Amino acid sequence: MNRRNAPKSADWVHRAAPAEGVEGIEAFFEGKAYGWHRHDTYAIGRTLAGVQSFNYRRDMRHSLPGHTMVLHPDEPHDGQAGTGEGFRYRMVYVEPALFQAALGGRALPFIEGGVTTDLRLSQATETLLQQVSHPLEPLELGDALSELAHALAAVSGTVPARTSADYASAVRARDYLHAHWQRIVTLEELEAATGRDRWSLSRDFRMFYGTSPYRYLTMRRLAAARSMMLRGMNLTDVAANTGFADQSHMTRQFTRTYGMPPARWLRMTGGRG
Fold first, then answer.
1. CATH no., domain 9-156
2. Rounded CA Rg of the chain
3. E strand or H helix at 116, and its extent?
4. Per-residue model confidence as pLDDT tens digits over 142-182
């Protein structure tokens, strides 16, 4: 088919006004939505129409209207329509640190299978999964996150972290990565900043924040990159300003994380790509 005469895609993505540590979207896709990718956040959502299908933990999952999806940080997954009618959904991406504020150093909750009909989680996500045009007040957001954290812990049966895990050191490592995301950070630096050896620190960081320190650093760079792209900065300059070796390095990391290259992401979110 001549590309000029190809039918225009009906796919769309609407983004909510971002809040600290929380990002929300509502979207519609007719066919393939995302390639394989993974986040360092929880992805928590609800299918509004159609059948939402995705590969997750070695199996194909199917979410129907009213189902709640809970994808754990750093778990690879993709996304596509389960039928020819396409699917519409809402999703919030929540930094694990926000749930840790409520859970106080417990291991992160894990919901087996990624899709659930548990009424506790359906009710606990109602506030966060409102229409993206309805911003939440700060206290409202905080209450909603706390309620959801405890619902996740109850449904998953989360138990306190083992006594050898060092939550305070993991917090210091996270703070250090936030302060130095624009440059290369070495393991020796993190050891010095936290007083914890690299192997214990890496293990504990993943327990409390759901991903590795390097992956967490990469995600801070990508978050800054998306903000710069939306402000109209070209991709070469974005890569140079966010600590990536070059544009191709940034594009590879972006695609692995969001399931699509930067140019498509910009078009889908109303940018200028």
1. 2.60.120.10
2. 19
3. strand 115-116
4. 889 989 999 999 999 876 666 678 999 999 999 999 999 98
Give the separation between CA 203 and CA 205, rounded to whole angstroms: 6
Give 78's contacts (C-beta < 8 A, 6+ positions apart).
Answer: 33, 34, 35, 36, 37, 54, 55, 259
Domain 216-268, CATH 1.10.10.60 — does that match? yes
The residue with tokens 């609407």 is: 14
Q: CA-CA distance, 69 to 111, in Å (whole number)? A: 9
Residue identified by tokens 């140019």 is: 263
Sign of CA dihedral 151, 153, 154, 160: negative
Distance, C-alpha 104 to centroid of its chain: 21
Q: What's the first-to-final CA gap in the chain, in angstroms?
A: 24
Kindly list the domain boundaries of the chain, sorted by start residue. Answer: 9-156, 167-210, 216-268
Cα–Cα distance, 208 to 195 (Å, whole number): 17
Query: Whole-prediction pTM value?
Result: 0.72
